[in-house]
Amino acid sequence: MSTVEKNKTVIRRLYDQSLNKRNTALLKELVSEDYVGFQGLKGAAGFEKPIAPLMDAFPDIQWHIQELLGEDDKVVVRWKLKGTQTMEYNGLAPTGKPITNEGMAIFTLKDGKITNGQVLTDRLGFLQELGAVPQDLNQLSNDATLKDQVNLIDKFLVPPAGKAEFYERMHMNRSLLKTLPGFIKDEAYEYNDNDGNLICVTVAHWANREVMAKAREAVQAAYKKEGFDLPAMLKRLNINIDRGIYTTVTD
Prior knowledge:
four-stranded antiparallel sheet
């Protein structure tokens, strides 16, 4: 069996035998100790941490693989998940509603174990199925809660030498924010200037200032627990940041 086929087998075991059967002990066989996941946690624990709340809130959740492709050390998987929300999830009260959602991930493997993963999901569709966001987004323009929404916008200028570490930290931060109450969605935009510097703009949308303030406290607590110093990292990598809190303009 080729390395590519062996890697595909690892990913199939991840979904079919570990996640779908709740055999989280198997993650130690499938995920490398070098894997960096939620809040900087490494290995199987870092992989499991962001998935556990989803499996708790949707105890019957199942991932159904739709497509599995491999090349070199990468495996791309596209799935459809189905489950019923019977417990609170990220501040959303139990609805008893069945949901169907789609997503994909790009995994990097080495020596038969996952060393990195980038996951993309239809978060908007997920929230719409739970009733947290209307199916017709035009309704939001008439929603009074939109007036309370605040948007944290950061613009980073990252020298070439700091790109890898910056991307790693940005991925960790975005994963953390998505677990916090009051989070609506986030976006990231980027380009490289003529000097090779990365210009990256991130936007985090929050329900109101109060939940954003609590989210900031949660992030700072996570940094403290991890022993991470954001200002020190920015200074060390010579990264410039412009941060602002913006409200939504309504007619």
